[in-house]
Amino acid sequence: MIPEYLSLQIPDGPHPRVVIVGGGFAGIEFAKALKNKPFQVVLLDRNNYHTFQPLLYQVATAGLEPDSIAGPLRKAFDGYKNFFFRMVKVQRVDYQNQLVKTPIGSLRYDYLVLASGSATNFFGLDQVKRYAFPLKQVVHALNLRSHILQNFEKAVLTDNDEARTALMNVVVVGGGPTGVEVAGALGELQKHILPGDFPDLDFSDMQVYLIEGTDRLLNTMSPKSGQKSKQYLEKFGIQILLNQLVVDYDGDSVYLDNGEVLDCQTLIWAAGVQGNVVEGIPAESLKHNRIQVDAYHQVIDMPRVFALGDVALMNADEGYPQGHPMVAQVAIQQGRSLAKNFVCLLRNKPPKPFKYRDKGSMATVGRNRAVVDFPQGGQMSGLWAWLVWMFIHLISLIGFRNKLVTLTNWMWSYFTYDKGNRLIIRTFDKKKRSPVEVN
Amino acid sequence: MIPEYLSLQIPDGPHPRVVIVGGGFAGIEFAKALKNKPFQVVLLDRNNYHTFQPLLYQVATAGLEPDSIAGPLRKAFDGYKNFFFRMVKVQRVDYQNQLVKTPIGSLRYDYLVLASGSATNFFGLDQVKRYAFPLKQVVHALNLRSHILQNFEKAVLTDNDEARTALMNVVVVGGGPTGVEVAGALGELQKHILPGDFPDLDFSDMQVYLIEGTDRLLNTMSPKSGQKSKQYLEKFGIQILLNQLVVDYDGDSVYLDNGEVLDCQTLIWAAGVQGNVVEGIPAESLKHNRIQVDAYHQVIDMPRVFALGDVALMNADEGYPQGHPMVAQVAIQQGRSLAKNFVCLLRNKPPKPFKYRDKGSMATVGRNRAVVDFPQGGQMSGLWAWLVWMFIHLISLIGFRNKLVTLTNWMWSYFTYDKGNRLIIRTFDKKKRSPVEVN
Predict the structure, then answer these.
(1) Which CATH number fits domain A17-46+88-120+274-346: 2.60.40.2550, 3.40.50.11540, 3.50.50.60, 2.60.120.1520?
(2) How far apart are CA A335 and CA B363, in angstroms?
(3) Which CATH class is domain A126-271+360-424?
(4) Which of A331, A401, B166, B281 is the S-S candidate for B263 at Cβ 3.0 to 4.6 Å?
């Protein structure tokens, strides 16, 4: 299947070669901070774009087009010297021989930086993995968007009340920021958008459920934020089930551990993430599906190998003995920290240990409402929090063009109560787990 | 595969039922013009959106996101009474029993309007059909965009000169507006966009070919426009082969009728269209793969059945004895004309025969350049023609949101020489003819 003329060749240069696996927040920040430094930087990613994951849920709920939250990686490095991007999936690390292995050959490294991010954790629930919708990649968001819209198109095509309700209902599993934000966006669709599109459906038949295993929402945030977000979601009519676990899903029925069964064609799984660990990492270097690093991002027992962001587990930072949260800010700060240490290395200076500066956290719940926790302990909710959320996300989006298009979309949605991206570009077949090509 | 609870049911009302097949320009205009008239209007389409086909080539060449040129059909009819949209593919017309047949059941009509548009005509060249890229649907444009960008990602992964050239080259077949516009956009990518992304490639190795069977470009436009567009394309270094036919393509080599062979991984087929005729139309009603209609859009030999737009062939309009050109303006005007005749029917007035008012035609060739033919015989080229082209396309885009996002994108591209949508969201496998799902 792979043409034989393809091979992973990078010309050798006078400078040591740093190979980065993964073009997420960590990999990009690290590579950018090495601009014009005497290293040959090689970035490998299976996609040619960076995904702004915090806004994936807006693509899934027809608020933004996929192109607004994805930025071409090559463009981000336009004009960089000694920089090479290659679109290829890394299969394995051979650290004894200092090689990364890919389907089109191996590449030698002087230093290796693993920044492959995270993947959805289904906790071994194979049927859930088969039928549920994760929300980690652009294609996940597009598949989910198609699926939800297809279900409403089907709902108008049946006079079977139970089937119709199962098509309209959505179960969101996981009360963290992703779960809360996607549930809020679904509430907004139910309240403001879909009734105009489907005048022949009764939207009081639709029920969005948010299921959380612990006794509160937004566990990583303040109790106030958890409580406020719950209030906001309940205003949308979303049913929040706390202290509940999903134990199975056969594609039609969601089974809870208290024996309850919810008939539902759409299960969104935002209940867990795990490190996206490439093969070849020795078991001693792994813990809880993440790669253990010291305070300098150096992987335990793997010389010349570093790990950053979601995939890395650092216990050395005071205040984070269980490791840092798997969020963009940690990845960004770690990328910069490691790059600084690489420069120290050049100058024969000692490297500095990493200290995470918490800049606060936030989540939005539909229109005009968000919760924000400040690092010093303050909390904020409502309209002003929502404006802060908008501003932070807008300035964080990579590339001025994406900011502009996103702002245009958001302004449009805000003033018109409309979302323009209600398109089923490729219909999705849940049973086959693939989009269907319409010739 | 289709759940048994689905069925195509529309409640019977007091008014006659008009079923429209196809939500393109003709179908939408017709349905809109019947707003609040005593008809039950049922619109059927396999997609839930309208495609603005004249700008598909900009999606394929990374200039616009797909969501900008597609408008949700339900939104276009928000607030319409007696209007029903159903997302379903019509398989067959049973005109003896006044039924349309779909995979989820039949629907009775009082009047049937066939507005199913056109499909690509490969003139029986099966291998070309298998490996070439048509450009009629949003998914075609997305597949082509992925394929072109994938090829450049592969080109940096080979030291085989022939393979690299074949990956970079593009052959466009057909010198009509679509062929000219897509060739121009490729020329712009080659000159302004791709060299920044791929500093390790030599873009003088890349060759775009435009192949046309007759002795000039833009055959349906004035000789001046044909000549000017040729000049503009040649300035981009595009090689134009006139009086040449493509006779075969095996996925690697393009065979011309003069014996020449061009090695190329990307063949874009814009050489022919044909009516997208649904099954069940009697042979007597068909001609040149289009449905023959009289001056009132009534299908010959099929009572209560009408046809509009690309799929309809009307010989009765003076000046168009071979039928009208297959363009948006004809479809729009025919949709309005038929709706007016439906209203005449209500008022017992005689219907009016259709007369096409040519509003002129135009084509753009990259940045700052276009050609425009005025209906009275005038012609215009260059920057002003390009501004006219932009203006007309912008105001024709359905929905204010799409106009706004498109304008934002165009302004951005214009001032920065950048195109922001260089994303391979789903990699495309040409041999399998399907997108590849990344896990």
Answers:
(1) 3.50.50.60
(2) 48
(3) alpha beta
(4) B166
* Angle at A273 (CA atoms; ends A268, A274), nearest 5 degrees: 145
Which chain B residue has its CA at the smallest distance from A74's CA? Answer: B197
User: What does the pLDDT look like over A183-214, one tens digit per residue?
Assistant: 999 999 999 889 999 999 999 999 999 999 99
pLDDT level of residue A97 (50, 70, 90 thresholds): very high
Q: Pick the residue from chain B with its C-alpha nearest to A406.
A: B405
Secondary structure of residue A162 in the 3-state scheme: helix
Helix (H) / strand (E) containing B167: helix B161-168
Three-class SS of residue A380?
strand
Residues B315 and B402: their CA atoms lie apart, in Å, by: 36
Do the chains contact at A66 and B160, CB–CB below 8 Å?
A: no
Residue among B104, B197, B435 whose CB faces A74 most closely: B197
Pick from A156, A162, A164: nearest CA to B44: A156
CA distance B24 to B335: 10
Residues A425, A421: Cα–Cα separation, whole Å: 10
Q: A-chain residues within 8 Å CB-CB of B161?
A: none
Burial of A331 (0-12, 13-18, 19+ CB in 10 A): buried
Q: How big is the CA angle at A72 (ends A68 and A77), to the nearest 5 degrees?
A: 130
Beta strands A111-114 and A305-307: pairing type? parallel
- Quote the percentage of chain B above a pLDDT of 90: 79
DSSP E strand boundaries for A182-289? 208-211, 239-241, 246-249, 253-256, 261-263, 266-269, 273-275, 286-287
Domain B125-271 fold is: FAD/NAD(P)-binding domain (3.50.50)
Q: Which of residues 103-122 of B touch A (CB under 8 A)?
A: 104
| Cα separation, A296 vs A282, whole angstroms | 19
* Cα–Cα dist B16/B92, whole Å: 21
How far, in Å, CA of A369 to CA of A374, rounded?
16
At residue B413, does pLDDT exceed 90?
A: no
**Amino acid at site B390:** M
Neighbouring CB atoms inside 10 A of A214's CB total 12
Q: Could you tell me how many CB contacts below 8 A there are between chain A and chain B?
A: 179
Which homologous superfamily is B17-120+274-346 in?
FAD/NAD(P)-binding domain (3.50.50.60)
Q: Does A70 touch chain B (CB under 8 A)?
A: yes
Q: List the strands of the sheet with A239-241, edge to edge.
A: A239-241, A208-211, A170-173, A266-269
* Length of chain A in terms of residues written: 439
Inter-residue contact A211 to A246 (CB < 8 Å): yes
d(Cα B244, Cα B229) in Å, to the nearest integer? 18
Contact A54, A363 (CB under 8 A): no
* Chain-centre distance for alpha carbon B16: 32
Domain ranges of chain B: 17-120+274-346, 125-271
Nearest to A409 among B47, B405, B437 (CB): B405
pLDDT of residue A439: 39
Using an 8 Å Cβ cutoff, are A293 and A314 in contact?
yes
* Closest to A8 in 3D by CA, of A72, A89, A117: A89
Domains A17-46+88-120+274-346 and A126-271+360-424 share a fold: yes
pLDDT reading at A165 higher than 80: yes
Which residue of A64, A83, A87 is the best one to mutate when testing the B interface, meaning the one whose CB has the most B CBs within 10 A? A87
Q: Is B74–A198 a contact, with Cβ atoms under 8 angstroms apart? A: yes
State the greatest distance between any 2 C-alpha atoms of chain A, in Å, as a whole number.
75
B404 closest CB neighbour out of A47, A200, A408 = A408
